[in-house]
């Protein structure tokens, strides 16, 4: 399978609180170009998939992440 990366992966870096991360994989139904969203806040995945003719998801992953307390991360003594 061949493809071109449109948007690079950005690792989670929450500033505070717990954040929900969802990664969804689609098999593109046509040969059209898929453009990365300009803004990720309030992103609507269903509209995005419909706009670019992506069909239904073939895989997905969900996880929570949270910033470590303090400023220096974990400290082992």
Summed up, the helix count is 1
Widest sheet, order of strands: 1-2
Which segments are poorly predicted (pLDDT under 50) over 5 or more consecutive residues? none
Structural class: mainly beta
Radius of gyration: 16 Å
- Give the proportion of residues in helices: under 10%
Let me know the largest β-sheet.
2 strands, antiparallel
**Can you give the mean pLDDT?**
79
Order of secondary-structure elements = EHE
Q: Could you give the count of β-strands?
A: 2
Shape: elongated
Distance between the termini: 48 Å
Strand share of the residues?
Answer: 15-25%
Task: Give a quick precis of the structure.
The chain is mainly beta and 77 residues long.
Structural account:
By secondary structure, the chain is mostly beta strands. Helices cover 9% and strands 25% of the residues. The chain is elongated, with a radius of gyration of 16 Å. The protein starts with 17 loop residues before the first strand and ends in an 11-residue tail after the last strand.
List key phrases describing it.
2 strands; mainly beta; 77 residues; two-stranded antiparallel sheet; 1 helix
Please specify the SSE layout and strand pairing:
Layout (H helix, E strand, L loop, with lengths): L17 E9 L18 H7 L5 E10 L11
Antiparallel strand pairs: 1-2
